Amino acid sequence: MSRLTDLIEDAESIAVIGHIRPDGDDLGSCLGLYNYIKENYPHVTRLRVFLEKAAPKFDFLKGMDEVSHKIGNDDKDYDLVACLDCATKDRLGEFDIILDGAKHSICVDHHKTNPCYCEFNDVRPDASSTSEVIYELLEDDRISLDTATCLYTGIAHDTGIFQYSATSQRTMEIGGRLLRKGISAEEIISNSYYQKSYDQIRAWGYAYEKAVLCERGRCIYTIMTWKDMKKFGITSMDLDGVSSELRNVSGVLFSMLLYQDGSNEFKASMRSTGNVDCSAVAVKHDGGGHAHASGCTCQGDPEEIAAMILSEIREQL
Ligand SMILES: [Mn+2]
Q1: Separation of 176 CA from ligand 1 center, angstroms?
Q2: 23: CA distance to ligand 1 center in Å?
Q3: Per-residue pLDDT tens digits for 175-200
Q4: How far is ligand 1, taken at its centre, from the CA of residue 85, in Å?
Q5: By the 8 A CB rule, do 27 and 51 touch?
Q6: Which of 39, 113, 136, 175 is at a distance of 20 to 30 A from 128, taking alpha carbons?
Q7: Are 153 and 28 in contact (CB under 8 A)?
Q8: How far away, in angstroms, is 110 Cα from ligand 1 center?
Q9: Domains and CATH numbers, the chain
């Protein structure tokens, strides 16, 4: 039993909400919890999951076709709202109205920058993923194959396939327990993590070609404008992973993808390693995340934004 399941026991209507531009961990944790409630708590008469539209590669997750992308008139009075993997209230996007109207709320997350904006908050910065935290809050023997598939997807994505430093012994144990449910781990990883479209690999190639190595080889960044994305017929969602790949360049401690998100607006997707904490820089610009993976939004010329962020990172080198 956990606070989360206690709250579920006492609720007849529940909304599960994720963050804007949902990633694998957000989708996996939200749909994992959604399926778990649906399968184990028949007394919950109104259950919905709210997420922005996700990349089609995640369509295999059970419940994806039941996700609500818009708020209806009757979505403002849930007994319980669970906000998952969402580091700030802002990142709930338009779904924040659902949180405001709910009787009770709980936030389950692993972002160390989370200010605990719900009534109850279970934020574990040491956990590899929100999906891992959700697993800890549920009962293993009530987790179905569908729920296991969702949670495994979330853990695999947020750990870079069990690679990043937040991958603990416990993470691996949970991965093993989810495998025992009979999930198709190879298919999940191949289809949702590594597989790319032809347009996408060409766009990634272009992003690499434009990458600038600086700070004596310790930093690297690249910029993708709307024009660039249009040229390859992709959206910013297709660039998910570019920043992590750039960090693989030998000698690099900090990598960044700046992609256009408004006529005068760019999003910085940052990755770092070792002692470089990119979340400190993200927070400065009203963003957030983890020490080694974070993001923020900045206005202005992208080269100037890059110069500004690099000057802040330089202090940590
Ligand atoms: Mn996450």
Answers
A1: 19
A2: 8
A3: 999 999 999 999 999 999 999 999 99
A4: 5
A5: yes
A6: 39
A7: yes
A8: 6
A9: 3-194 (3.90.1640.10), 198-314 (3.10.310.30)
CA quadruple 51, 56, 61, 65: dihedral, nearest 10 = 60
Tell me what pLDDT residue 167 has: 96
Task: Note whether 79 and 11 are within 8 A (CB).
Answer: yes
Structure tokens at 107: 């936030």
29 CA to centre of ligand 1 in angstroms: 9
pLDDT of residue 296: 96
Q: Which residues contact 297 (CB under 8 A, 6 or more apart)?
A: 261, 265, 266, 267, 268, 285, 286, 287
- How far away, in angstroms, is 171 Cα from ligand 1 center? 13
Centre of ligand 1 from the C-alpha of residue 125, in Å: 10
Instruction: Determine the residue type at 84.
Output: L
Q: What pLDDT shows up at residue 65?
A: 97
Cα 5 to averaged position of ligand 1 atoms, centre (Å): 20
| Ligand 1 center from residue 216 Cα (angstroms) | 31
Question: Is 57 buried (19+), middle (13-18) or exposed (0-12) by CB count in 10 A?
Answer: middle
